[in-house]
Amino acid sequence: MSWYDKAIIYQIYPKSFQDTNNDGIGDLQGIIKHLDYIKDMGFNTIWLNPIFVSPQVDNGYDVSNYFAIDPILGDTNDFSEMIEKAHRLGLHIILDLPINHTSDQHPWFRDAISNSNSIFKDYYIWHDQVDGHEPNNWGSFFGGSVWEKNPNDSKEYYFHLFDKRMPDLNWKNPEVQKSVADIAKFWLEKGVDGFRLDAFIHIAKANLEQNSLLTDQKFPIDDTFYAKLPAVKDYMSGFVKEIKAFKPDAFLFGEAASAKARDAAEYTRPNENVCDVVVNSDNFGEEYETDPDIPKFFQSRKLSLDTLKQTYVTWESVLEKVSLPTLTWGNHDISRVLDRLNLPVENDKVTELLAMMLFLQRGIPVIYYGEEIGMHGLKYKNISDFDDQRALDLINNLRSKSFDDQKILQLLNNQDEMTARGPMQWDTSQYRGFSKKRPWNWAQTDTTSVNQEIKDPNSVMMFYRELLRVKKHECFTSGTYRLLITDPKIYAYLRRTDHNQGLVVINFSDQSKTFELPKGDWSDNLSNEKIQMNDKILKLGPWGCCALESKS
Ligand code: GLC
Ligand code: CA
Asked: For residue 289, what pLDDT is reported?
């Protein structure tokens, strides 16, 4: 067993957590200030979104220098202080490492385009123009083509899956693999405990001369050619072997947005040197409205308990003998869970139930900052407040289809990722205790805050704290998982070890429900209401949930 088999991860978006020098941007000193809070809440691991030097085209995912901290966040001394204090408190820190691409301002890329003998040319992916245009029709995740002209040679293009200012690295080149391993080792030496490997499923590309047959757009996004190709595992293994030889317990947490359970198993098989766990981004049991005019990302959706049960039972079963699933309601790439799933979340019981149903399953909880106080996303006033590329594309697209601006604003406020990147709400002051200056990302917020939640024993925050305490019980950390067949509106599962067993029962409805208890000498651990129970029957009120334990 490694330390990370018991990880409970808190995801921090550094620019939005706490500003200590009042420039409106969160910083490392802000994180240091709240390490005690994180520890007290019961987290034991922190994942920081990228903190390296970056032009901030994509909020740090475009790195121009991997060996230093971005000056807006702090410097090497702040970093050492953060690691030292975190470790003193028993917290692990993992850094987000963009490995699929660099910034176009990175010295490797600058040299590759300006020096005809550059040894870094082969660090990137190039192709000559074909009949005077892009080498193929593949679409970028951020809109348009994956190809952009070499600014110093108009007949040649470079490849970028994301923004055109983020050229993809050529992982076929062993020098690239080695250089990225050197970056990882540099930070491991400075004390970090592992990495989130950003977008790793995209590091291998198909034959660049192949065109996509999808015809929905001029440059269709077609994963076939640049996601989960077999070479991903080959490229990763050399790199990962080097990291693990250097620090065997370095935790590698891979981002595999489009992974299904079987892909996750493929990438986390022990001793194959890819990842320890992977996290994907569509395990939320969502059912979409099907308005063909609206791109899927922005469509209204609701949580379907049936889909969710199906998803959980699949992931838990496929990964059972392989690795730990990751358990998450969201991250910086989608709107916050309380805004996204059309649930009656004005009722705190619903927020608490969502947490319990997910995090007590077998796996590693990954909780996005603010979720633990029931924070909603930012609500912007005007569509002109949105300036990320995906939002701009949506606005153009829907205006051309005569949608009115209010409707577009509503879709953006419910689904756009920028709404989820607002300041952490520490108190009720003007900028919520985040800063004295207007935050870099700011709009209307809700009124919840750490200061208020901490005083109220019935708050969402106190429920999360108790829940993470319960999660550390042996049955909820390492027990097996079994879904129980129940009333369709109930979600119930058993977690079992040789010594004891845990039972979670969730009433996913606004009606009271009864539930027949399996054999056991059940005692109540945590619930979001006063539960009624005898040795056979458990009664739950609307949106009630509870976690019980018994000897096996
Ligand atoms: C990942 C990140 C996302 C970023 C992208 C490119 O998907 O989570 O925020 O834009 O990679 O690095
Ligand atoms: Ca600051």
From this structure: 86
Identify the three-state secondary structure at position 551: strand
Give me 285's structure tokens: 């049991």
Domains defined along the chain, listed by start? 3-98+283-464 (3.20.20.80), 107-159 (3.90.400.10), 480-551 (2.60.40.1180)
198 Cα–ligand 1 center, Å: 7
The residue whose CA has the least distance to atom 9 of ligand 1 is 333
| 102: three-class secondary structure by DSSP | coil
Q: Which atom belonging to ligand 1 lies closest to the Cα atom of 331?
A: 8
Contacts of 3 (CB under 8 A, 6+ apart): 92, 193, 249, 251
Instruction: Please give the helix or strand (H or E) that residue 405 lies within, else none.
Output: helix 405-415
What tokens does 514 get? 């009864």
The answer to whether the CB of 478 falls within 8 A of the CB of 497 is yes
Pair 276, 251: CB distance under 8 Å: yes
Tell me the H-state helices in 273-404.
Answer: 305-319, 337-340, 348-359, 389-400
Whole-angstrom distance, CA of residue 344 vs CA of residue 347? 6
> b/e string for 382-408 if b means 16 or more Cβ within 10 A?
ebebbebbbbeebbeebeeeebeeeeb
Active site residues: 198, 255
Cα 205 from Cα 101, distance rounded (Å):
13
Helices marked H in 190-336 — which ranges? 231-246, 261-268, 305-319
Closest C-alpha residue for ligand 1 atom 4: 61
- ∠ CA 355-357-363, nearest 5°, is 90
State the pLDDT at residue 71. Answer: 98
Pocket test for ligand 1, best of 11, 56, 61 (most atoms within 8 A of CB): 61
Closest Cα partner for 436 from 21, 29, 22? 22
State both tokens at 295: 């791109």
Which residue matches tokens 């085209």? 57
Ion ligand 2, residue ranges at CB < 5 A = 19, 21, 23, 25, 27
Nearest CA to ligand 1 atom 12: 61
Q: Which of 342, 228, 324 is nearest to 284 (CA)?
A: 342
Run of H or E including 39:
helix 35-41
d(Cα 289, Cα 296) in Å, to the nearest integer? 9
Give, for ligand 1, the residue of 198, 416, 441 to mutate: max count of ligand atoms closer than 8 Å to Cβ.
198
- What is the mean pLDDT, run by run of 10 residues, along the chain of 552 residues? 97 98 98 98 98 97 98 98 98 98 98 96 98 96 94 96 97 97 98 98 97 92 97 96 97 97 97 95 89 91 96 97 97 96 96 98 98 98 91 93 96 96 98 98 97 97 98 97 97 97 98 96 95 94 98 90
Contacts with 213 (C-beta within 8 Å, 6 or more apart), sequence order: none
